[in-house]
C-alpha cells in the first residue's frame, strides 16, 4: 500500500489475495502489517505489538489511515496557502517596482482594501478597533508627526548648544 492508495480497497484486495494464497488466518496480521505504507506502519507499530487478532489491528489501522489522510490534506493546504501568499507578495512587489511614486499610494490603498475584504477581523493595534490598520490610523499619524517634530527640535537645540561651547 502506498500513502495515496484507498485503504478500504487495499483491505478488500488483501483479504481476497490472502484467501486465494491460502494464508493461515493467524498470519494475516503480520502479512497485513508488512504490506502497509511506511508512514502507516510507524503509526501502528505499538498497536501491532499489543493486539492479538487481525480484526483488532485492522480496525485501529483504519482509524490511523483517517488521521494520516487528515494530516496529509492539512499539509497540502498549508503549502498551497504559502505558495499563494508568496505569489501575492511577489505580485505586490512587482507592482510597486513598476509604478511611479505617485501611483504607490493608490496601489497601497487598493491592496489594503483587498486585504480588509478578505480578513475583516483585522484590527488596529494602536486603537484596537476593527476595519483599519495602524498605518492608516489618523491619530497615530499625528502622534508620529509630533514625535518627528520634537526629535528635530531636540536635534537643533543640541547642535546650537554644541556651537555655543
TrEMBL record:
Gene3D superfamilies: Zinc finger, CCHC-type. It comes from the Eukaryota. The lineage of its organism: Eukaryota, Fungi, Dikarya, Ascomycota, Pezizomycotina. It comes from Paracoccidioides lutzii (strain ATCC MYA-826 / Pb01) (Paracoccidioides brasiliensis). This is CCHC-type domain-containing protein.
Amino acid at each position: 500500500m502506498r500513502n495515496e492508495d484507498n485503504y478500504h480497497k487495499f483491505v478488500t484486495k488483501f483479504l481476497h489475495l490472502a484467501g486465494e494464497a491460502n494464508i493461515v488466518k493467524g498470519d494475516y496480521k503480520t502479512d497485513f502489517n508488512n504490506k502497509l505504507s511506511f508512514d502507516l506502519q510507524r503509526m501502528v507499530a505499538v498497536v501491532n505489538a499489543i493486539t492479538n487478532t487481525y480484526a483488532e489491528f485492522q480496525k485501529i489501522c483504519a482509524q490511523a489511515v483517517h488521521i494520516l489522510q487528515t494530516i496529509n490534506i492539512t499539509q497540502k493546504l498549508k503549502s498551497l496557502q504559502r505558495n499563494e501568499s508568496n505569489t501575492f507578495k511577489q505580485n505586490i512587489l512587482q507592482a510597486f517596482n513598476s509604478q511611479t511614486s505617485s501611483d504607490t499610494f493608490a496601489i497601497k490603498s487598493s491592496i489594503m482594501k483587498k486585504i480588509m475584504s478578505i480578513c475583516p477581523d483585522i484590527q488596529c493595534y494602536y486603537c484596537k478597533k476593527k476595519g483599519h490598520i495602524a498605518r492608516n490610523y489618523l491619530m497615530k499619524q499625528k502622534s508620529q508627526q509630533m514625535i518627528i517634530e520634537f526629535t528635530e527640535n531636540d536635534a537643533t537645540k543640541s547642535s546650537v548648544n554644541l556651537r555655543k561651547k
